[in-house]
Amino acid sequence: MVSVIIPAYNEAGAIVGVVEKIRSVMDTAGHPYEIIVVDDGSADGTAASLIGQDVVILTHPENKGYGASLKAGIRSAKGDIIVITDADGTYPSESMPELVKAVHEDGYDMAVGARTGRDVNIPLLRRPAKFILKKLSDYLSETKIPDINSGLRAFKKDLALKYFHLLPQGFSFTTTITLALLSDGYNVKYMPINYLSRKGGKSKIKPFRDFTNFALLIIRVICYFNPLKVFLPVSLLFLALGGYHIVETLVLYRRVTEAGLLAVLLGFQIGFIGLIADVMVRRDRWVR
Q: 95 and 148: one domain?
């Protein structure tokens, strides 16, 4: 059983077409499935536009966020495999059976539609931020991630429930579940897909605000799973700066300044905090 979950906020102009396309694709694939649309407090009649469609409609009285909508859909899902996509028609529904196959038959825990195909329409304003976030997540997770926050993916429901306490209410849901599964050693497959232009409505992404939130989230999640990847570089930086300053002042002025000693001391403290955090993380995993 496959549960296709579509979070929707003011997408009345596109949602019916998206649902019909998904139904056509999934009927051909032959999997038993359900489609769940979560209307996240829309003011344009998104839920009303689906009357007569064979879908499960969940509604929020007010806008709670992308992640909150996905979590509501996952809670009510009957399927063992969850597929998520957007309501604006940007993701190719025809890729869904391949993603499901990777999880259902090929042994992967999650399959992600990576927006690296031949036709990728990501706004230019968002590309620099995506590049920086990709490099940061690659370094911290020690894995090359083609697309960390793609909204088209399939994963096992029980795994999502395992990490529910970590998954946020906002757009960073997909980033968090990606980093969590990779950090815990689960198998994630990336499949190149196209990324189409919106079929209507306006993007809910705020590039500058969301870039900061995504960057902090990546650091926070990696601190949760592998804290030394964050604490150790900072510790070494302060140790190097302090050591350089001490040597420089000894050579030039034959004395050691408080600034150099303070930097070295701070470097040691940050390193020890990282070690303690790493021990706690490993102990928690062993207990589980």
A: yes
Query: In terms of domains, do 99 and 203 share one?
Result: yes
Give the pLDDT mean for 227-234. 88
Per-residue buried b or exposed e for 61-83, using 16+ beta carbons within 10 Å of the residue's own CB? eebbbbbbbbbbbbeebebebbb
Mean pLDDT is lowest, of 60-64, 126-130, 178-182, 268-272, for 126-130
Judgement on whether residues 53 and 89 belong to the same structural domain of the protein: yes
C-alpha span between 151 and 18 (Å, rounded): 14
CB atoms within 10 A of CB 276: 12
106-127 pLDDT, tens per residue? Answer: 999 999 999 987 777 666 666 6
Helix (H), strand (E) at residue 16: helix 15-29
Q: Tell me: do 31 and 173 sit in the same domain.
A: yes
Residue 212: the pLDDT is 74
Cα 260 to Cα 87: distance, rounded to the nearest angstrom: 55
pTM above 0.70, yes or no: yes
Q: Say yes or no: 103 and 211 in one domain.
A: yes
Judge whether 92 and 196 are in contact, CB under 8 Å: yes
Helix (H, G, I), strand (E, B) or coil at 182: helix
Report, as an integer, the average pLDDT of 223-243. Answer: 89
Residue 45 belongs to domain with CATH number: 3.90.550.10
